[in-house]
From TrEMBL:
It is a multi-pass membrane protein. Keywords: ATP-binding, Cell membrane, Kinase, Membrane, Nucleotide-binding, Phosphoprotein, Transferase, Transmembrane, Transmembrane helix, Two-component regulatory system. It comes from Alkalihalobacterium chitinilyticum. The lineage of its organism: Bacteria, Bacillati, Bacillota, Bacilli, Bacillales. The chain crosses the membrane at residues 46-73, 93-117, 123-144. Residues 172-381 form the Histidine kinase domain. GO terms for molecular function: kinase activity. It is an enzyme of class 2 (transferase). This is histidine kinase. PROSITE patterns: HIS_KIN (PS50109).
Length: 381
């Protein structure tokens, strides 16, 4: 933003308008105020330096008037900036327009003082000057607010994608929990009816019930680990453990689809990051693998340390439908999906999370053969 706005300022100053000799007008205030209000005092200061240096370099009369005018604007901008962030869009428009009017007023006064009279009072000029400033800044705000909204929308989509994964998992998890519950309730029924007289047999049945309940509990706690909102806690994580849990949580879904999961997890693959984000990345990759094998197949999940490079390598491969060259290029682009009910956000989230951790992702895929994702993450000792 600093670069863009600086260019705007320099262009505005280069294509200025000379009212009479030595009296130069232009629209540099628009990018300046804009940067100050959206970017804060620091960005404003940099833009101010750019503006003033270029203005001084050009020279001409009124340099001191410019200096005072922009210092006043800068200081008032600094005071407004904090509140500006919390304002509604309507108030932002009004505030920024207010700043434009203040600029015109300050320029008008300083011109009058500089020349000692209102000799340059040309009402048509000042009217035009004011209107263009106001309209210009309205267009500027409109564009940036649209961009900000887009950005927020995209973040929201990522969150929705997560809830979609979670609700899909919920269906298979519920299934997985029901079986142990059915067994347990059967056992209790038997015991209640007093049909089992043998003490040994009773104990065995109770043991079975306990085991089944424990199984249900572990399924639920695995699920909760993923379903909880992000906590943004960065810590040392063991990749093999996270992969193991991801596999366990997805196993019911794999079973329903006739998919065999093969895992080779080397111990003590440590990296630094946020557990839930990594969990989600792996789940997204594994889920894609499962979805690529509608007629069953094998899903391979591996992790190992690459000693020479201090990296942890994770491999997630399927024997599914594979991807064309074009698909490989598009993968990770937001909303790119070849599935009927796909969101096209799963891979984007994966790329963001892995790249955010300083990692890299490679894709190897062949149509009808399968796909392999290789992830390299920096190792933590
Ligand atoms: P979604 O799963 O909602 O379609 P993703 O971002 O997870 O969105 O994936 C984007 C696209 O990448 C998929 O629609 C699919 O075409 C392709 N893709 C991802 N993983 C695989 C895979 N393991 N095998 C084949 N195609 C895949
Ligand atoms: Mg997906």
């Amino acid at each position: 933003m600093i670069v863009l706005l600086s260019v705007c300022i320099i262009l505005a100053l280069s294509f200025s308008f000379e009212l009479t000799k030595g009296l130069i007008f232009d629209f540099r205030t628009i990018p300046f105020i804009f940067g100050l209000l959206y970017g804060g005092p620091r960005m404003g200061a940099i833009l101010l330096v750019v503006l003033l240096s270029y203005r001084f370099a050009i020279g001409g009369e009124g340099v001191w008037a410019v200096l005072i005018t922009y210092l006043i604007l800068y200081v008032s901008g600094c005071f407004t900036w904090k509140h500006y962030q919390e304002m509604s869009i309507r108030k932002r428009y009004l505030t920024t327009i207010g700043f434009m009017l203040l600029t015109v007023l300050l320029l008008f006064i300083s011109t009058a003082i500089l020349f000692g009279s209102f000799a340059f009072f040309d009402i048509v000029f000042w009217l035009n000057f004011t209107i263009i400033h106001v309209v210009g800044v309205i267009i500027f705000i409109h564009l940036i607010e649209m961009m900000l909204q887009n950005y927020q929308l995209r973040n929201e989509m990522i969150r929705n994608e997560k809830s979609e994964v979670i609700s899909q998992l919920a269906a298979s998890i519920a299934h997985e929990v029901r079986n142990p519950l059915t067994t347990t309730s059967g056992v209790i029924q038997l015991l209640l009816k007093d049909e089992v007289k043998d003490e040994e047999k009773r104990k065995e049945l109770l043991k079975l019930a306990k085991q089944e309940l424990k199984q249900a509990e572990s399924v639920i706690s695995d699920y909760l680990l993923v379903a909880r909102p992000y906590q943004n806690k960065v810590e040392t994580l063991s990749i093999d453990e996270i992969l193991y849990r991801s596999i366990e949580i997805i196993r019911p879904m794999a079973n329903m689809n006739n998919i065999n999961i093969v895992s080779e997890l080397e111990n003590n693959c440590y990296v630094t990051g946020e557990v839930q984000k990594l969990h989600q990345s792996f789940l997204n990759l594994i889920k894609n693998g499962i979805e690529a094998m509608p007629n069953g197949g094998t899903l391979t999940v591996k992790c190992k340390i690459i000693k020479g490079q201090s990296k942890v390598q994770i491999t997630i491969a399927d024997t599914g439908i594979g991807m064309s060259k074009h698909q490989i290029e598009c993968i990770g682009d937001p909303y790119y999906s070849t599935k009927e009910n796909g969101t096209g956000l799963g891979m984007m989230v994966v790329y963001r999370i892995i790249e955010g951790m300083g990692g890299k992702i490679k894709v190897y895929s062949e149509l009808e053969k399968g796909t392999e994702f290789k992830i390299l993450l920096p190792q933590t000792d």
